[in-house]
């Protein structure tokens, strides 16, 4: 009944939902999905390193994500993005499963021989064609994306603020004035909120501008950054958040959104700057709004995964450090090579940060930041330089009579580049990788550890990627890194104070904030790769989601039991989902689970054997007791455990007293049963009884007497430690519970430093009708009644979890 009321309320809420109205006004299609179908939202926080995430958490900049970790069972893991540590490389691996699709953010395309950057629509389209040839199963097929460099399988109009489709899709651009007016009217509060944030951010941007000028920055460059900072930091974030919420209302199977604001500020002022960390608070708030919309969805059962694509190093521009550009330094350094021309370099006077504002697709942005085709050096020169971030590449070097080692040495000694790598024979993909740094020649992989230093989190993986990168078709003849061990400060070849793209210890440490029951591919290894996120996401969308039933600490004679009325696996939101119930159980790692109200082969729940399904998802043995049996349909209770188990007895308990009227209580005619198993734990046996008592007092008293009698708890073979648990449908001060208390102890009362908590109903758990009773020789160590968004939705009851210690046990 409660689930029906909840479903009705949610239907009415959908009718008045702004996101629903916006989707309808824009003529956007909705997904033909059922409420229990899986959906996935991937939120990328661009540029936020694992150490900076923890620092921001400690400073209180991420309150919602802290809540996810504290109350919603999310766990923080490292993510190794690979090298180059750039967004296009990570997105290619995430969306298509292809590593190192590009050698850097800016590079020379071997198809055209021209220098390009990944924000150029033509370059992004060409790279995606390469990906499509390699893999025809993009991750975002049927979904949508925001601020992605690739479409990744999204249909026309579902890629927003992307290089190939600037602006917010054709639906909004083609909307009538009347539609636009209604959209503005229905989102008046969001517009007011966004306007206020824009004003605040504009003031902060002006302060930042003044500070930059005082520190010697170019005035015009600082002024140009003010509107683009506001655009990228606030407007893009708010528009993307609104768009994602619309797509959730539509029920799209997968949605990807990239939050750019922190990366923008980190490039500008550095990853540790107060301005960069200030932006994180707004990103955290946007993630909270998306997460709440996802969990309120009527069309799908959404999961939300949060991660970053790379970190950033606190750097100093090469030009500021040495007083000249890298191109000029290389021209001088290589002057010993006979007939060496000057270096041809496509140069952005504005930087990647300002180019991002073009993703709005607005004409005023295009006029303010025109395409910059300026170059340094001779346009007819074959020698070319791609330098954007801490990784630069030199192309078309004519060696003449000099060796490649001579060129690398000159670049290090005269141009002061920290590290240069090259293939010994560029025509052979597997030829050895050599290089030069301040201490002389190096060879990979042998000298890799000393190049990266002992503090590097991923030395072996980074060295392997640096070796492979030298053979990339678009890589330069010489790969120049602005950082290696001992280089202080780290250098970047762009005009920025925060940088990424190379092999630095922070830029190679991204993070993944995942639900606890989505384990990393190798828990012992303890980190993700983007390709592993892709495989896990595809499995999740297929309904093959792994349940992380972690091994509990091996504490002698100590174990965890759980009782849980699962309401036929139908939640208060009306969604039928055994997977969700399994997810609740998996999060708390019980040794024994007593479940009530399970359907087996019932038409109302999809003719699924819920007991068997839950046991398979949780890798446990199951013993099911059908209290109700109608032809092939059954309904009852079960015990699941991973411990050695033996079924002792299962059966039906007495019904209402003879002559008791059921006219006004038809449910009183429902049979009630119990199941008794014996489990072995560290050589000791434990008797466990699971039951679901009736609705009338007289019926429950008869059932309690039967359970305490010689056929159940009073049986001669029921010796030693014993537990009776389940849904008793009665309060602790009732006659039934008082009668039980004469033989057993209430675990919630016995638990140290614990105030008994209610379990029903899950949204407002004021009634304590689910109980765990233990024999006097069992020591109760702790009790938990988890109240998370998941447990409040999954059933009309909350689970009750008790940690116990058997007689003679050690903690």
From TrEMBL:
Keywords: Endonuclease, Exonuclease, Hydrolase, Nuclease. Pfam families: Exo_endo_phos, Phosphodiest. GO terms for biological process: GPI anchor biosynthetic process. One of its GO terms (molecular function) is exonuclease activity. Signal peptide: none annotated. Residues 562-797 form the Endonuclease/exonuclease/phosphatase domain. One of its GO terms (cellular component) is membrane. The keyword Nuclease applies. Coiled coil: none annotated. This is Metal-dependent hydrolase, endonuclease/exonuclease/phosphatase family. The lineage of its organism: Bacteria, Pseudomonadati, Pseudomonadota, Gammaproteobacteria, Cellvibrionales.
